[in-house]
Amino acid sequence: MNAKELLQRYAEGERDFNTTDLSGVQLREVDLRGVSLKKAVLFEADLTGANLVDVNLNGVILRQANLAEVCLAGAKLAGADLAETNLTQADLSGANLWRTMLRKATLCKANLDRANLHSANLTAATLTEASLSKATLTHANLSDATLTNANLKWVDAAEAIFVRSQLRGANLEQADLSKAVLMEADLGRVNLEAANLSWANLGRAIVDGVNLTGANLTHANLIDARLTMAGMRGAKLDWAELTKANLTEADLSWASLQGTNLSAATLCKAVLIDVDLRAAILRGADLSQAKLDPGCLEGAANLSWVILPSGALQNASAMPKPNFTD
Predict the structure, then answer these.
(1) What is the mean pLDDT of residues 229-258?
(2) CA–CA separation, 210 vs 229, rounded Å?
């Protein structure tokens, strides 16, 4: 079917175009509100600026299509194939993108507020400056995706995968990232204030200059993470793993680090005012020039080979030198 026939039949009141092959059609700026295109094929179609509000596109194939500035608010796109599709500045607010394929899709400045992206595949997708406020990203795969300066405030991304993702400058305030995988992700200067990162995996992540004020990082994995100059006031890091983490000049004032493993961590010039370090492991940690309250280290489980703020070694003569190569 070509574009002319489709538009004529639509004008006559027809709305069911399910399974229709519309590959390569030119439908720029058309109004197809309320149409059903379930499992239709629109490979390399051009729908730039089209109005597709409340359209049923479940299972549709839109691979390599141009959907720039398209209005897909409230659209049904569950199980659709939008791999390598251009969705720049598209409106997908409230859309259902459950299990949708969006690999290598371009979603720069797209509106995905309140969209359902549960289990969606967004690997290597570009979402620079996109808005995903209150969106659902549970179990979604965003490995190698670019979300620079994106708005993810209040997003539900529990158990989502962000391996090697670029999130620098993004807003994740009050986001749910519990059990999310953020290994080797770039979270530099990200706003994670009051975010839930409990049980999240941030191993080897770049988290310099991040705002983690009041964030929940209980049981989180931050092994080898770079947290230089991170703002972590009032953060909850109980039982978190921070072995070999770099917390140089980080502000941990009023943070809770009960049972936290800080073995071989670098805390040079870090601020540790009113910090709870009960049962924390600081074996081999570097606290040189750190700002500590008197008695701050009382109750810590292991202080062997710690470099104190004065530069002195704690228990150096009594304990064998630790090996952190494993």
Answers:
(1) 98
(2) 8
